[in-house]
Design goal:
By secondary structure, this protein is α/β, with parallel strands linked by helices. It has helices at about 5-25, 30-65, 70-80, 85-90, 105-125, 135-160, 165-170, 175-190, 190-195, 200-215, 220-235, 245-250, 250-260, 260-275, 285-310, 320-340, 370, 380-385, 405, 410-420, 440-460, 475, 490-505, 560-570, 580-585, 605-625; strands spanning about 390, 395-400, 425-430, 465-470, 510-515, 545, 575, 590, 590-595, 595. Helix 2 (about 30-65) packs antiparallel against helix 5, helix 4 (about 85-90) packs across helix 5 and helix 8 (about 175-190) runs parallel beside helix 11.
Length: about 625
């Protein structure tokens, strides 16, 4: 369902309500007793099912996933309540399709709750909530109002600027769990506003929540705030006489509620592993749901329930060190599978992708490894020594520049240079060429270096040279179809491009811009034929293709292509090569051609495509459109 992610927000509210109800019933003599008892209960409640899930899923993951490192690192961080931080710093977008492949992706919400649990007992004790219920309720309520106000403001403000930070961090999610806490306090104090709210039928609130989950999500922030508010009202309005509570109080539904933690842990892992293997189909979903419920049942009945209510040792206060020790041991177990034993248990053929990198350029004097990515060793001086192949000082030079899309074209660049007996300069810094102003530190450094390269090319180039620019424009400039919403820098880049073309025109140098090639988001899920095909994943493979019209003639690339055509018309030395047309034969853009992959991932063309599809057509284009070839 489109709004399925909103289930997390509902459980945040429930979690806050339940944990406060639990604390309210406890009578602790001093802070030490209060804090140790709290953490003991949390360890008994959370750790045993989590350990079983992480350890077993690690083994299964190692059997069926050829590159499980990201998943396993997420699993390790989840053991210590830090998977949200790891996912954030690994530049993970929760809404990206590729996130469905991380078997531990969902543990980010558990980490948010655990981080809340770490601070919450200190807040409750300092406000006097455990020892003086009356005054303590008021102090805690006021404190949470202040903290929650700051939290929701930060969430709204940050979401527009960096959605991942707003989505994954505990401080920006604090207000949701806190609402559950404040609801419990408000109900205990019989707040007038909650009495008024009881007039809204619970069934109507429940129906609105369900509708929100099934409706397309236009505004994520508004949806989260709305579903969280509705959840607060629904919990407040559920009373014994209401029809909805009678339904929810049915024996089987209550049992599912008790199993909810085990269901939460196992559902995503099983569905994610299914995506890596047989896939998820109409005919398989019932079988997969059965597995989820069966394993969750075993987890609840034989791990969660017995260990939650039993003493783990005869010694007092031993639960906390036992819990911490088991987490450390388990993290070491997962680490062994992610490093020393990586790939040892994989049941597939363990073969490399068809597009393995080889430093073919070294025979021509170009160090491909050095020139194909940004690193601290790159300087203007050594780039023009290591990244150029000189056939003859008298011959023209072809400069190939750009990001990783230029990198994936290196076989094509070599072919074109060899066929025309031209000198070849090849560099991929991972950023735009010509350079534009960047915000992130790593991109700032690349942009500064790229600016130096621009100036050096303008200085060293001679009449007849050609500059080729290949960059991933859709990812950088579009605000639709892509998971990172930080676009609309197209005008700045076009300004830089226009300036570069005009300056290099004085040297009689041509500039060739390659239009964007097709991209296949579904390939992030490894579901296209020729992608890591193994005996156990054949049923999940698809023929991936789009009609060319999906990209051009009103399609998703129209804005970029129109802008490039306009700037090409304004600069007589700037040419536009239609790479989209080259990759889409008979107006169909395919991911594979028979058994040959045309792409190495979801957006980079394969070296087969570079050498045998685009390069010959680009060479023909040069001969027909660019002088002196």
């Amino acid at each position: 369902m489109p709004g399925g992610f909103l289930g997390v927000d509902i459980f945040f509210v429930i979690s806050g309500f339940v944990i406060t109800a639990s604390l309210f019933r406890k009578n602790n003599k001093n802070f030490f007793e209060f804090i140790t008892k709290f953490y003991e209960r949390r360890i008994k409640r959370l750790i045993p099912p989590l350990l079983a899930f992480v350890l077993l899923t690690t083994i299964i993951t190692s059997l069926f996933i050829i590159e499980p490192t990201v998943s396993l690192r997420t699993g390790i961080s989840s053991l210590f309540g830090m998977s949200n931080i790891y996912l954030l710093h690994s530049s993970t977008d929760y809404f990206a399709e590729a996130s469905e492949l991380n078997v531990f992706m969902h543990t980010w919400s558990l980490s948010v709750e655990e981080q809340f649990y770490f601070f919450f007992p200190f807040i409750t004790w300092m406000t006097g909530f455990p020892s003086e219920k009356g005054k303590g309720l008021n102090k805690l309520f006021i404190t949470l109002i202040l903290l929650s106000t700051a939290s929701i403001i930060a969430f709204i403000f940050l979401y527009e600027r960096n959605a991942s930070y707003a989505y994954f961090l505990m401080p920006t999610r604090f207000w949701e769990i806190s609402l559950g806490v404040m609801l419990f306090i408000g109900m205990k104090k019989n707040l007038f506003i909650l009495k008024i709210a009881k007039k809204i039928p619970p069934l109507a609130l429940f129906s609105l929540i369900v509708c929100l989950m099934f409706l397309p999500q236009i505004n994520t922030v508004l949806s989260i705030i709305t579903v969280t508010s509705l959840s607060v009202l629904l919990i407040n309005n559920l009373e014994e006489k209401t029809f909805l509570l009678k339904i929810l109080s049915q024996k089987n539904i209550v049992y599912l509620g008790k199993m909810s933690y085990s269901l939460y842990l196992w559902h995503w892992g099983i569905l994610s592993i299914s995506r890596w293997t047989i896939g998820i189909h109409w005919w398989s979903i019932s079988f997969q749901l059965l597995i989820i419920f069966f394993i969750a049942f075993i987890s609840y009945e034989y791990l969660e329930k017995p260990l939650r209510y039993k003493d783990w040792s005869l010694k007092k206060l031993s639960t906390i060190p036992i819990g911490i020790s088991s987490l450390i041991f388990s993290s070491f177990f997962v680490f062994v599978f992610s490093k020393p034993l990586l790939g040892r248990f994989y049941l597939g053929s363990n073969r490399a992708e068809n597009n393995s990198l080889k430093t073919v350029f070294k025979r021509n004097g170009i160090d491909f490894d050095f020139c194909s990515r940004f690193n601290k060793k790159l300087t203007k001086a050594n780039i023009f020594k290591k990244c150029i192949s000189i056939n003859s000082q008298e011959e023209r030079t072809f400069f190939f520049l750009g990001d990783s899309h230029n990198q994936s074209f290196w076989k094509g660049a070599e072919y074109i240079a060899n066929e025309t007996k031209s000198n070849l300069f090849y560099l991929s810094t991972g950023t735009l060429f010509p350079s534009v102003k960047e915000e992130k530190e790593i991109y700032i450094k690349m942009s500064e270096l790229t600016k130096q390269i621009e100036e050096e090319i303008i200085l060293k180039s001679k009449s007849g040279d050609v500059v080729f620019i290949l960059v991933r424009m859709p990812f950088r400039f579009l605000d639709q179809w892509y998971e990172i919403h930080k676009r609309n820098g197209l005008d700045d880049w076009l300004t830089s491009l226009d300036d570069f073309a005009k300056r290099i025109l004085m040297k009689n140098v041509k500039v060739v811009i390659s239009t964007p090639t097709p991209e296949f988001p579904i390939a992030r899920l490894k579901q296209c034929k020729t992608q890591n095909s193994e005996w156990f994943n054949q049923l999940s493979k698809k023929d991936c293709f789009y009609p060319k019209s999906f990209f051009s003639n009103g399609g998703v690339y129209t804005k970029i292509i129109n802008a490039l055509e306009n700037i090409s018309n304004r600069n007589k030395n700037l040419y536009l090569f239609d790479a989209l047309d080259a990759m889409c034969q008979n107006s169909i853009c395919k991911y594979q051609e028979q058994n040959e992959p045309l792409y190495s991932d979801d957006d980079h063309i394969s070296y087969y495509s570079a050498r045998y599809i685009i390069a010959p057509k680009m060479l023909k284009f040069l001969k027909n459109n660019v002088d002196n070839l």
